[in-house]
Amino acid sequence: MIPTDRNGQLWIRFPALTADEKRYFDVVSAAEILDADFEPRVFENQIVFLGSSAAGLFDLKSTPLGARNKIPGMDLQALTIHQAIAGHMIRPIEAILWKVLAALIFLIYAATLISRFPSLLNIAIWLLGVAGIASLQLWFFLTQATFFRALSLLLFVLVFGAFALLFDLIQRDKKRREIKSAFAHYLSPALVNKISQNPEQLRL
C-alpha cells in the first residue's frame, strides 16, 4: 500500500546527497551490460529500473535539494518504490474534522472569553495557539512521518485571531476614553486613570 494525498500525489523524502554522490542508487550503464566480462549477478535479488538519464531527453527533475541537484525521472521512480517497500514515505493527513473542531473552539473563545481576559493574556493565548499548531505539524512530520495539513487552520488562527485582538483592543480603548470623559469633572485624574485601566472596578 502506497499512501497518497486526496489528489493521488505521492509524498517522498529526498535524502541529501554528499559532494561525491550524484545518484541515489547504483547505476549500471548499457555499455557495461554489453561488455563480455559483465557479471549479471549484480542484478540478483534486486529491483531493476531500465531507463535513460541523458540531459538532452529533458527528463531531469528538480528536487527540494536545489536546482543543482536535478535527478532523472527514473531515479524518482526508484526512490518511490524504495521508500514504499521500506515504509518511509510521508503520509499526508487532511484531518478536516479536527481542524473544524479547533476552529470552532477558537471562535467560541473569541466570542465569549476574549473580552473578559486581560489584553496580555489574550495575546499570550493567541501566540500559544499559533505556536501549538506549528509545533503539532512539525512533531507529526518528524516522529510519525506524517504531514498534518494544518496550514489552513494556522492561517485562520493567525488572521482571525489578529483581527479579534485588534477589535478587542479598540473596544477597550474606547471604553477607557468614555470613562475618562464621564468622570473627569467629578474625580481626581489619578482615580479616573485607575478606573479606566480597570473598568471592572467601577461600581455605581
Task: Report the principal-axis shape.
Answer: rod-shaped
| Class from helix and strand fractions | mainly alpha
**Strand count, sense and closure of the main sheet?**
2 strands, antiparallel
Radius of gyration over C-alpha positions, nearest whole angstrom: 30 Å
- Tally of DSSP helical segments: 6
| Assembly annotation | single chain
Tell me the strand percentage band.
Answer: 5-15%
Please mark out the parts with pLDDT under 50 across 5 or more consecutive residues, or reply none. Answer: none
- In spatial order, strands of the major sheet run 1-2
Listing every helix as H and every strand as E from the N terminus to the C terminus, the arrangement reads HEEHEHHEHH
- For the termini, the CA-CA separation is 70 Å
Task: Tell me the helix content.
Answer: 40-55%
Mean pLDDT: 81
Strand element count = 4
Describe how the helices and strands are arranged.
Blueprint: H1 30-34, E1 60-63, E2 66-72, H2 73-86, E3 91-93, H3 96-112, H4 119-144, E4 146-148, H5 151-183, H6 189-197
Parallel strand pairs: 3-4
Antiparallel strand pairs: 1-2
Helix pairs in contact: 3-5, 4-5, 5-6
Structural account:
The protein is mostly helical and 204 residues long. The chain has helices spanning 30-34, 73-86, 96-112, 119-144, 151-183, 189-197, and strands at 60-63, 66-72, 91-93, 146-148. The strands form two sheets. It has a two-stranded antiparallel ribbon with strand order 1-2. Strands 3-4 form a two-stranded parallel ribbon. A hairpin with a 2-residue loop joins β1 (60-63) and β2. The longest helix is centred in the C-terminal third of the chain and has 33 residues, at 151-183. The protein is rod-shaped and about 110 Å long. The mean pLDDT is 81.
